[in-house]
């Protein structure tokens, strides 16, 4: 069945929109597509073809780091090599606190956090696995 809907962007509420936007640009190579000039500013960034809207949060909870909390919990970034991606990100100051784990659906994953503690992970899929 063909889908009528496609993903346009993901919203990410931030304590500090400028610092979080800078982290995604500097650490992950995102590019700024649009800046909404307001106080604090909001941004639309492009990360590998996916748009992320960074806007001001009204509150923050450390529960965002709990991958089992109900709701959307992480952003997965597809890479060809976990080791190479970890090497690149480590050189840019990203810290990895966990080891590589098996991925649901095949392959491997490696979790890390952005500047504000939001969960991300690198995903390396096996050749011939689902795309």
List keywords for this structure.
131 residues; alpha/beta; 2 domains; 4-stranded mixed sheet; 34% strand; globular
Question: What would your notes on this structure say?
Answer:
This protein is of the alpha/beta class. The chain has 2 domains: 9-57, Signal recognition particle alu RNA binding heterodimer, srp9/1 (2-Layer Sandwich); 64-131, 2,3-Dihydroxybiphenyl 1,2-Dioxygenase, domain 1 (Roll). It contains 2 helices and 8 strands; from the N terminus they run βαββββαβββ. The protein has helices spanning 17-28, 82-91, and strands spanning 9-14, 31-36, 42-47, 50-56, 74-78, 101-102, 108-113, 119-124. A 4-stranded mixed β-sheet has the order 1-4-3-2, with helices on one face. Strands 5-8-7-6 form a 4-stranded mixed β-sheet, with helices on one face. A hairpin with a 2-residue loop joins strand 3 and strand 4 (50-56). The longest helix has 12 residues, at 17-28. The model has no long low-confidence stretch (mean pLDDT 92).
A few lines on this structure:
The protein has 131 residues and is of the alpha/beta class.
> CATH first level of the largest domain: which class?
Alpha Beta
**CATH-defined topology of the largest domain:** 2,3-Dihydroxybiphenyl 1,2-Dioxygenase, domain 1
Order of helices and strands: EHEEEEHEEE
The CATH homologous superfamily of the largest domain corresponds to 2,3-Dihydroxybiphenyl 1,2-Dioxygenase, domain 1
Average pLDDT figure? 92
Q: What is the CATH architecture term of the largest domain?
A: Roll
- By DSSP (H or I, 4+ residues per run), the number of helices equals 2
Radius of gyration: 15 Å
Shape: globular
What fraction of the residues are assigned to beta strands by DSSP? 25-35%
Report the biggest beta sheet as strand number plus sense, adding barrel if it closes.
4 strands, mixed
């Amino acid at each position: 069945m063909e889908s009528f809907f496609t993903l346009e962007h993901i919203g990410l509420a931030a304590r500090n929109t400028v610092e979080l936007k800078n982290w995604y640009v500097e650490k992950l190579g995102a590019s700024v597509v649009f800046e909404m000039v307001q106080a604090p500013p909001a941004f639309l960034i492009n990360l590998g073809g996916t748009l992320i809207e960074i806007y001001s949060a009204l509150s923050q909870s450390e529960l965002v780091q709990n991958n089992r909390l109900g709701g959307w919990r992480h952003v997965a970034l597809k890479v060809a090599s976990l080791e190479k991606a970890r090497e690149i990100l480590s050189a840019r100051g990203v810290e990895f606190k966990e080891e590589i784990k098996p991925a649901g659906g095949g392959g491997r994953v490696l979790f890390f956090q952005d500047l504000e503690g939001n969960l991300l992970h690198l995903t390396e899929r096996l050749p011939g696995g689902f795309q």
